[in-house]
């Protein structure tokens, strides 16, 4: 290792100490660079501009504490990650490169997908930091006579709604609902779908027939019709929405996993595992599912976007999250009452949905290309 | 071929039966019942009980299930509580409107999707290709109800009131208030104008998926030898693409019809609510809230069965069109 290299490294360390992410950005790794740099600057901004609220959050409500923890953790992670990366040990390439490393490398070459990933990380950070970030309380009402339907201004960047509440603040708080529901519902459906799909594919016979016929039936329903029927009749609550969304999405995953497992089942390594006398449970959980995971991750990422749209739709119809809790779908519905006079009410929450879903779709597409070795270039 | 079609038809029967079962139990295990619709203050418990007996709600669930299934087999879908007439009549009234809307949306979506996908494939990796991909992905990520509102905002409200454009589209209903007084030509125009915004709201979201699929399928086809031969013969690019390549590239796209019909039906609930379109989606949605069980069950069952039928048709079409596929 030459002296010049060490000097360069020391210089990068100085840069990294002040602005983590900048070294990576300048050396051409803009994906990681932007993520770290934006996290660092954003969190510092919150710390300085909202320091009263940060102090107030100590021992506050659970979401304030969570925001505080997120703030501190992301600052530490961003800083140390960049520091380590700059001064890190040079792991020789080619040794111990796993399939996942290869996929990560292919993914990082896909610029639109990386941009999508940055947006998603930013969205989750914003959602977690909202109590510190939002200019107003989402339920705070201004003067109902003078401050209703105020257009875009510096006081209310995105205007106010029919109850003189700040749209930007409600948008930020709404992100929590959308992202949380999307994530939890998809986790449920992916777990169920993967397990049932793997069991159906591996066992075959009657078990396979029963599971897949059920899958066929559920898939035949226009999903929204099924959702509004169940939620409309059983009553709406966050728990109900998450459960129903989660329980209607899994058939798609099950089909994908079954297809994968059917082809994996004939491979030598599964036959070897069978010959070795491993239990069916072990073969399914340790050998089949990890190898079928690629398409599942893709489906899950795309599924989160899909689920966010569906949740917004349910809220739009009045079946989702109930007011006054802000949710993007409800906000779009509120704007419907005075579309011409207050166009910003429906427009911005809708744009928030579009960009969130777009980010998930971009990442999903990128993952599809990265995880499938046949598509790697 | 006939054997394949028959087998495919037979396999749809348990599917439809399963759909009916799920619909019945989802609706009947929910708390509350249709008597809520007639409930008024000062009603005694006796009257409610009598009502429950009249509706047959005093029977255990499995008895009701078998009765409902049996009645349905004879074409009797029950009596709609909120509309006060047979469910079948209600369906016959509203279904055509939904079908018109869905058919228009499907047509527009496939037309746009096929054209855009073909252009993208022929000019692969050009600026046009990537620009179209970005725009399409943007529409693909859009909730249809929001797109509908934005279309109303721009092409109807702003176009009419703010920008003073010569053309703006009506945002509600299937015909204007003065429809009866129009001449025939004006009537047709009025109907078409009312169709534009709901159709676009439904179609644009679907277009992206179709275009992407079409692009992939077209790319595969134009790399084949027979296309190169056609080009080598000196035929113009337009003839090669539209006469030789398009036909084969369209085959896999047919399967999308079956795939998109449930998405389309889901969309109609929003679109019909927003545009005050008197169709099935809105009828079911309204029926759920007033607990019109017979209508909810029949409507949901119809929707799901139409999906099965659409899939069936797509499969059979696929087998008919593509001679490479043999199912014997």
Concise overview:
The complex is a heterodimer of chains A (377) and B (328). With 377 residues, chain A is mainly α.
Describe this structure in words.
The complex is a heterodimer of chains A (377) and B (328). Chain A contains 15 helices and no strands. Chain A has 377 residues and is mainly alpha-helical. Chain A has two domains: 3-133, no CATH class; 167-375, MetI-like fold (Orthogonal Bundle). In chain A, helix 13 runs parallel beside helix 14. The mean pLDDT of chain A is 82. Chain B is mostly helical and 328 residues long. Chain B has one domain: MetI-like (MetI-like fold, Orthogonal Bundle), CATH 1.10.3720. Chain B is built from 13 helices and two strands; from the N terminus they run ααααββααααααααα. Chain B has helices spanning 2-28, 35-38, 45-55, 61-73, 87-122, 127-140, 144-162, 184-222, 225-232, 237-250, 255-274, 280-289, 293-321; strands at residues 79-80, 85-86. In chain B, strands 1-2 form a two-stranded antiparallel ribbon. In chain B, helix 8 (184-222) packs across helix 10. Chain B is globular. The model of chain B has no long low-confidence stretch (mean pLDDT 84). The interface between A and B is large, with 43 and 51 residues.
Molecular shape of chain B: globular
Average pLDDT of chain A, to the nearest integer?
A: 82
Structural class of the helix and strand makeup of chain A? Answer: mainly alpha
Report the sheet with the most strands of chain B, covering strand number, pairing sense and barrel closure: 2 strands, antiparallel
Return the string of H and E elements of chain A. Answer: HHHHHHHHHHHHHHH
Helix segment tally of chain A: 15
The total strand number of chain B stands at 2
Structural class of chain B comes to mainly alpha
Biggest sheet of chain B, strands in spatial order? 1-2
What does the overall shape of chain A look like?
flat
**CATH H-level superfamily of the largest domain in chain A:** MetI-like
Specify Rg of chain A, calculated over alpha carbons: 24 Å
Give the total of domains of chain A.
2
Q: Which runs of chain A of at least 5 residues are low in confidence (pLDDT < 50)? A: none
CATH topology value of the largest domain in chain A: MetI-like fold
Percent helix range of chain B: over 70%
């Amino acid at each position: 290792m030459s002296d010049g290299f060490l000097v360069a490294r020391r210089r990068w360390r100085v840069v990294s100490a002040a602005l983590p992410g900048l070294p990576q950005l300048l050396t051409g790794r803009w994906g990681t660079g932007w993520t770290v740099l934006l996290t660092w600057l954003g969190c510092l901004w919150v710390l300085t501009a909202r320091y009263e609220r940060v102090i107030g959050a100590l021992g506050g409500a659970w979401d304030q504490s969570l925001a505080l923890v997120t703030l501190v953790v992301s600052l530490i992670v961003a800083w140390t990650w960049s520091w380590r990366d700059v001064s890190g040990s040079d792991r020789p390439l080619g040794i111990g490169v796993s399939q996942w490393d290869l996929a990560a490398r292919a993914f990082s070459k896909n610029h639109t997908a990386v941009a999508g990933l940055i947006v998603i990380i930013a969205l989750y950070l914003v959602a977690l930091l909202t109590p510190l970030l939002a200019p107003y309380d989402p339920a705070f009402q201004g003067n109902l006579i003078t401050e209703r339907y105020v257009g875009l201004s510096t006081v209310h960047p995105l205007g106010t709604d029919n109850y003189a509440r700040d749209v930007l603040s409600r948008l930020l708080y709404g992100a929590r609902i959308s992202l949380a529901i999307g994530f939890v519902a998809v986790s449920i459906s992916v777990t169920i779908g993967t397990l049932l799909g793997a069991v159906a594919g591996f066992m075959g016979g009657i078990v396979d027939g029963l599971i897949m016929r059920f899958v066929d039936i559920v898939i035949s329903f226009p999903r929204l019709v099924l959702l509004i029927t169940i939620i409309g009749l059983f009553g709406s609550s966050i728990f109900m929405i998450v459960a129903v969304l989660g329980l209607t999405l899994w058939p798609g995953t099950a089909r994908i996993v079954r297809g994968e497992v059917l082809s994996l089942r004939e491979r030598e390594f599964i036959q070897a595992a069978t010959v070795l006398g491993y239990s069916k449970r072990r073969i399914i959980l340790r050998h089949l599912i990890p190898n079928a995971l690629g398409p599942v991750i893709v489906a899950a990422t795309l599924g989160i976007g899909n689920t966010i749209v569906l949740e917004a739709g349910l809220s739009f119809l009045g079946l989702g999250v109930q007011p006054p809790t802000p949710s993007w779908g409800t906000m779009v519905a509120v704007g419907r009452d005075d579309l011409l006079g207050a166009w910003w009410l429906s427009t911005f929450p809708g744009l928030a949905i579009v960009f969130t879903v777009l980010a998930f779709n971009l990442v999903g597409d990128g993952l599809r290309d990265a995880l499938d070795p046949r598509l790697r270039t | 071929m006939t054997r394949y079609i028959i087998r495919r038809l037979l396999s749809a029967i348990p599917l439809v039966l399963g759909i009916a079962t799920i619909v019945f139990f989802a609706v009947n295990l929910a708390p509350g019942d249709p008597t809520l619709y007639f409930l008024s203050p000062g009603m005694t418990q006796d009257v409610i009980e009598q009502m429950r007996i009249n509706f047959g709600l005093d029977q255990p669930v499995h008895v009701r299930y078998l009765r409902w299934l049996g009645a349905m087999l004879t074409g009797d879908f029950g009596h709609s509580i909120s509309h006060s007439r047979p469910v079948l009549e209600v369906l016959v009234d509203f279904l055509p409107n939904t079908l018109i809307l869905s058919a228009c949306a499907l047509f527009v979506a496939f037309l746009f999707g096929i054209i855009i996908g073909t252009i993208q494939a022929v000019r692969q990796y050009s600026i046009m290709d990537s620009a179209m991909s970005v725009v399409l992905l943007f529409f693909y990520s859009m909730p249809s109800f929001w797109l509908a509102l934005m279309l109303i905002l721009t092409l109807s409200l702003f176009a009419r009131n703010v920008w003073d454009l010569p053309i703006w589209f009506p945002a509600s209903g299937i015909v204007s208030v003065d429809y009866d007084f129009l001449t025939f030509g004006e009537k047709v125009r009025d109907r078409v104008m009312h169709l534009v915004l709901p159709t676009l709201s439904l179609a644009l979201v679907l277009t992206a998926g179709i275009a992407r699929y079409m692009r992939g399928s077209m790319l595969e086809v134009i790399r084949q030898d027979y296309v190169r031969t056609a080009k080598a013969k000196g035929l113009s690019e337009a003839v090669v693409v539209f006469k030789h390549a398009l036909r084969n590239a369209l085959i896999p796209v047919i399967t999308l019809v079956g795939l998109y019909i449930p998405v389309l039906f889901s969309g109609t609930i929003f679109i019909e609510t927003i545009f005050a379109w008197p169709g099935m989606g809105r009828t079911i949605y309204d029926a759920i809230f007033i607990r019109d069980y017979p209508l909810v069950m029949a409507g949901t069952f119809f929707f799901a069965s139409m999906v099965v039928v659409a899939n069936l048709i797509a499969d059979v079409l696929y087998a008919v069109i593509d001679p490479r596929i043999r199912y014997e």
